[in-house]
Design goal:
The complex is a heterodimer of chains A (about 200) and B (about 575). Chain A has about 200 residues and is an alpha+beta fold. Chain A has four helices and ten strands. In chain A, strand 3 and strand 4 form a beta hairpin. The radius of gyration of chain A is 20 Å and the shape is elongated. Chain B has a six-stranded parallel beta sheet, sandwiched between helices. A six-stranded parallel beta sheet of chain B has the order 11-10-9-12-13-15, sandwiched between helices. The chains are: A alpha+beta (about 200), B alpha/beta (about 575). At the A-B interface, strand 1, helix 1, helix 2 and strand 5 of A face strand 14 and strand 15 of B. Bound molecules: thiamine diphosphate and magnesium ion.
Chain lengths: ~200, ~575
């Protein structure tokens, strides 16, 4: 049976969050190309983090993207189609280390300060700035952990928060997504390369 | 010897075998024009409007299979290229556009004629470059041509600031290889995928091939016919796949989709296997996806992995260069006949004669194109505009050789008919080139008649003059209850006098009896000719599956007033 693959119609697998990592050339405009592709095709980025990679001249991007399997397949293929993108993998089904960093400024009163500091300690978070009426807390961890602390601090009054978005890495020797179905061979360094030819 | 950036551009173009550059100069690109004057092997064709430059490069590329080149100055020059670049992007046509940019120090300051052309063209190019150092000029051009012409082809823009063009610091060093670590166009497909595709094909009882532009791009015409004949599989060609297999081939069924033959849409509806070859299941082909080919599995072969599962989910997706994949596939396909299926399709053809042209005293556009194709002999190149005349050309013209229908399919760019014909004829001076034009589209780009005249480019223009934006009028007729609004051209120029103004021959044809002679005469004249075919103005294109609907809503013939809508 022909099945439509378009986003407009209901898909069997519901919306999910996927973590995608991409190795890209560190050139002006790369971020624009990536962002433009996401916008144009209506893909939904929950977070995006970019930074230098282990290889000179190459950056690594970590995306958290909302969508069902079909959408995510399109996302990875469209990403890989960009000339400046060297490798793409959906690492969602793999054993990964995933972390983000958040800075949270909380309003304090003499009576609440102690409790807030206790929460911070429980979460292994650091107090990086103290004033008479506020604290800045730095927390690193998985998304859940950061969400939990954020939730606990909210009642005290969060006046400012910044989260970096997730950065992620596959543990040990594992590699990226299974492209067997497309029959695309893994590239030499273990990550999967998607050659779209475009 | 040290060369300027501009001279390096010229040297690079020669290395790429470029013979023609379509363009128009201006301040920022002036150094390039200064240099080109000293490179007589690069023929610069001066256009009247930059849109003609990008569309001529596109027509040249489609007719020859080589990369078409255009150039323009910064700002308005570059933005005028945009429609042609987008046209090439949608239809996977290899062109390289070279634009001048304001000097580096002025970038970002809203300088005179500064536009962010790499930003503007980012979503409508396969890739683009802003070259900020003279050392990068030759590598960028090498990479631009490589990207444009390999894998799934497409337009590439190279934007060069004026002071980089003037920079006289380096020698010309032509790189051996493009340096593109993220770009690996696929070749052959993995054996397992091909085997699975063959298995589905061998099991199928009602298969059809959907042949797209990819067949022409990868030059897989022989392989297409071999596969079709070996397993007796009927071939349906998308708009851009037309001419990938001769019209007269017994297995060629013609076009599907919105204005395709009714029997093709019914065949797809009844098929148990679709074999998509270098095509992308565009909405003009599929209509409403939910109702498309409900009984079929899908083998989808394309060089661009992102096309697989984009619109239609493939049972067996195969990524690879079509020609190579077909050569892998054909030995695994068993010879068969599919007798029942072919008979069924013959019945469908008999019951739904979609190409029937009714008897009429009036000059019907379908009749004109049928005769034009007949008299011209089917080995000319037909370039069309966009609209009703385009669909009638796709339905009624006959093609013998690959790349002989040149039309803007994906973007549907009116005005394509004049400049693309210019490029096609300059690329293939051995071929008669007919520009099948709409009176609307022709007037969008007719300023470049002058370019054809100046360069003695022999194009035969057949204007299907219905004094209207016919295709839109047709939609208003049906969907807006004949409330015609902004679709009628009551003040068209006299195209015969227009021809005279450009110093070329013009003819007006208003009666059926005159058609053959006019076409014949146009082909005898050396040089451009315009024939103004004054056709019935409210004729409509059928069959028709209105946008977003399915084969079940197909209207086969022009309904009597008060029809289905
Ligand atoms: C540049 C551009 N503007 C608008 C349209 C929308 N459009 C599609 S077909 C058409 C009518 C074309 O008129 P004409 O060239 O005379 O061809 P006809 O349909 O009459 O044969 C229009 C306006 C388009 N495709 N391209
Ligand atoms: Mg018209």
């Amino acid at each position: 049976m022909v099945q439509p693959a378009n986003k407009g119609e209901q898909s069997a697998s519901g919306p999910e969050q996927h973590t995608i990592i991409a190795l890209v050339e560190d050139k002006p405009g790369v971020l624009t190309r990536v962002a433009s592709m996401f916008r144009r095709r209506g893909f939904n980025i929950a977070s995006l983090a970019v930074g230098r990679s282990e290889r000179a001249g190459l950056s690594r991007m970590t995306f958290v993207v909302n969508g069902d399997m079909e959408t995510i397949k399109q996302v990875t293929r469209q990403l890989d189609k960009l000339i400046d993108v060297i490798e793409v993998s959906d690492i969602s089904t793999h054993q990964v280390v995933a972390r983000e960093l958040a800075l949270i400024k909380v309003t304090t009163t003499p009576s609440s300060r102690g409790e807030i500091m206790q929460f911070a300690e429980l979460f292994d978070a650091n107090i990086v700035d103290v004033s008479t009426s506020s604290l800045v807390i730095e927390i690193t961890g998985g998304e859940q952990k950061v969400n939990s602390l954020e939730g606990l601090l909210r009642p005290f009054g969060i006046t400012e928060m910044v989260r970096t978005g997730l950065v992620a890495m596959v543990r040990g020797q594992e590699s990226g997504i299974d492209l067997e179905n497309l029959g695309i061979p893994p590239s030499a360094n273990g990550l999967i390369r998607m050659d779209s030819g475009i | 010897m040290k060369l300027s950036g501009a001279e390096i551009v010229c040297e690079s173009l020669l290395k790429e075998g470029v013979e023609i550059v379509f363009g128009l100069p201006g301040g920022a690109v002036l150094p390039l024009y200064g240099a080109m004057a000293n490179y007589p092997k690069l023929r610069h064709v001066l256009v009247r409007h930059e849109q003609a430059a990008s569309m001529a490069a596109d027509g040249y590329a489609r007719a020859t299979g080589r990369v078409g080149v255009c150039s323009a100055t910064s700002g308005p020059g570059a933005t005028n290229l945009v429609t042609g670049i987008a046209t090439a992007q949608m239809d996977s046509v290899p062109i390289v556009a070279i634009t001048g940019q304001v000097p580096r120090g002025a970038i970002g300051r809203d300088a005179f004629q500064e536009t962010d052309v790499t930003g503007i063209t980012l979503p409508i190019t396969k890739h683009n470059f802003l070259v900020m150092e003279v050392e990068d000029v030759a590598p960028a051009i090498k990479e631009a041509f490589h990207i444009a012409s390999t894998g799934r082809p497409g337009p590439v823009l190279v934007d060069i600031p004026k002071d980089v063009l003037l920079d006289l610091r380096t020698e010309f060093v032509w790189p051996d290889m493009p340096n593109l670590p993220g770009y690996h166009p696929p070749g052959a497909a993995p054996a397992r995928q091909v085997a699975q595709a063959a298995e589905l094909i061998n099991r199928a009882r009602r298969p059809v091939i959907l042949a797209g532009h990819g067949v022409l791009i990868s030059q897989a015409y022989r392989e297409l016919i071999e596969l079709a004949e070996k397993a007796q599989i009927p071939v349906i060609t998308t708009l851009l796949g037309i001419s990938s297999i001769p019209t007269a081939h017994v297995l060629n069924m013609g076009m599907p989709g919105m204005h395709g033959m009714a029997y093709n849409n019914l065949a797809i509806d009844q098929a148990d296997l679709l074999i998509g070859l270098g095509m992308r299941f565009d909405d003009r082909v599929t209509g409403r996806l939910r109702d498309f080919a409900p009984n079929a599995q899908v083998v989808h072969i394309d060089v661009d992995a992102s096309e697989l599962d984009k619109n239609v989910k493939a049972t067996v997706p195969v990524v690879g260069d079509l020609k190579q994949v077909l050569n892998q596939l054909i030995p695994l396909v068993q010879p068969t006949v599919h007798l029942d299926w072919i008979r069924r399709l013959d019945e469908l053809k008999a019951q739904h004669p979609s190409l029937y042209i009714r008897e009429s005293e009036e000059l019907l556009p379908q009749y004109v194109l049928n005769r034009l194709s007949e008299v011209a002999g089917g080995d000319c190149i037909v370039v069309t505009g966009v609209g009703q005349h385009q669909m009638w050309a796709a339905q009624h013209c006959k093609f013998k050789e690959p790349n002989t229908l040149i039309t803007s399919g994906g973007l549907g760019s009116m005005g394509y008919e004049v400049p693309a014909a210019l490029g096609a004829r300059m690329g293939r001076p051995d071929k008669t080139v007919w520009s099948v034009a709409g009176d609307g589209g022709f007037q969008m780009t007719m300023c470049d008649l002058a370019t054809a005249v100046e360069n003695n480019v022999d194009i035969k223009f057949a204007i299907l003059n219905n004094q209207s934006l016919g295709m839109v009028k047709q939609m208003q007729d049906v969907f807006y209850d004949r409330e015609y609004y902004a679709v009628e051209y009551s003040g068209n120029p006299d195209f015969v006098k227009l021809a005279a103004a450009y110093g070329i021959e013009g003819m007006r044809v208003t009666r059926k009896e005159e058609v053959d002679d006019a076409v014949r005469h146009a082909m005898e004249v050396s040089g451009p000719v315009i024939i103004d075919f004054v056709v019935k103005s409210d004729e409509q294109v059928y069959p028709w599956i209105p946008a977003g609907e399915s084969v079940h809503e197909m209207i086969e013939e022009q309904p009597a007033r008060g029809g289905p809508y």
